[in-house]
Amino acid sequence: MRKFILGIDEGTTNLKCVLYDVEKQEISDIEQNTFKNFYPHPAWVEQNANEIFKLLLRTAKAVLKRNSVEKGELLGVGITNQRETVVAWDRRTGEPICNAIVWQCRRTSNMIEKLTQKQKDLIKEKTGLIANPYFSASKMKWILDNVPEAKTLAKSGNLCFGNINTYLAFKLAGSFATDTTNASRTMLMNLKTLEWDDELLKLFKIPKASLPEILPCDANVGSCKQLLNAPIVGMIGDQQSSMVGQGAIFSGDTKLTLGTGAFMLTNIGKDCTKKLPRLLTTVACTLGDKTDYAIEGSMYSACSALDWLKSGLGQYESVSETDKMANSLTDNEGVYLVPAFTGLGAPYWNDNARACIVGMTFATKKEHLVRACLESMVYNTKDIVDEMKKCKMKLKMFSVDGGGSKSEFTLQFMADMLNHEVVKSKQSQSTALGAIYIAMLSLKLIKKEDIKKLAAEEKKFFPNLKETERKKYYAGWKKAIGNCEI
Question: Which of 83, 76, 52, 89 is nearest to 173 (CA)?
Fold first, then answer.
């Protein structure tokens, strides 16, 4: 009998179902579809959770049918999802009471700004997070304050709050549950206890009864009647799932995803007390009763800046040209691009910063702008790595995936600036594979150490830059950062 795992990768704009052959240890097939985001006001972002669920069923059934997967052949389901996005629904009907508020939405900025420094310090101490509208708690409070049905349901005990993974699990298996990685992004879970924190619930006025049970990532959440009765045996947030998919599963292992924005996470093992003022501490993964934590730094803009040069300024036609353009120059000739189009993320956390290009002369060409853009991803990565080193972490494996990893110029410059070996991940579906590996661990089909073997690498890049040059380049970047304030 054939054996499969279905990986559900629910992102911010698309939903992907990945069918994995357990015996062959490879992806058999992929089905992918996009869904809408809504922008009712400036800086507001919403989604229709019911539409996402219906799309999930359609996408999953399509890939299962195309491969003639029968009941019993699908051993389990793993779910990975966009983090922080909040869905509110009626426990009795499973129907959302309003659109989901997406992680990108800034509608609660004023709410966060009104928090006292003492309250912000409390949030940082208990959750490892920096108080920010990015996380789920303020979104839940906004719904309670602005959606009348939410108050009514809360009084009767029928209000459900959850991230997208919780809503999908509720609809698929009838279970009201989340995992520690998603819960750690709400600003409501205590990192030490891995439980909802009463003091934080009181701060945001969130009724505990409206929140799901927090389970390990490899827990059996329940069976999916609509998907061949297979059990959900893996749930993990997308960035943590990418860590697992790339094999960053032991202390000191780091993964960097270069996408529209960029997310870097370093596994710090069992100690959640390593907190840095300008970076986040979060759950990396919980398997059974064992939890690993991670230090996380995020960049608001990475490949989106490269796309701006193409679509906005017409500086090149195909991404494949960018490496050739960058390598046509012997160095950056003092030209820097700071991609603060929507502010600066870690470690600056400056929402008032704006993008700038510095160091231009009449000799500056489009090649300089492209090179400066590619280099900016590396400099911001070094910013975060230098911040991480303050907690005396030694970097071991440094793996990179995402669209930006296609640029060998960027990966070589990263090895040079970090003075550390950089690995290009071979897996183009590392996020989905992370959830699949968690499901396989849950079903005892593999052991944790096997993930290192499954997470193949495509190429390694080694540092080849003098320390004097490294310092010169980075000093120019730090000077450029000072020019992006408004």
Answer: 76
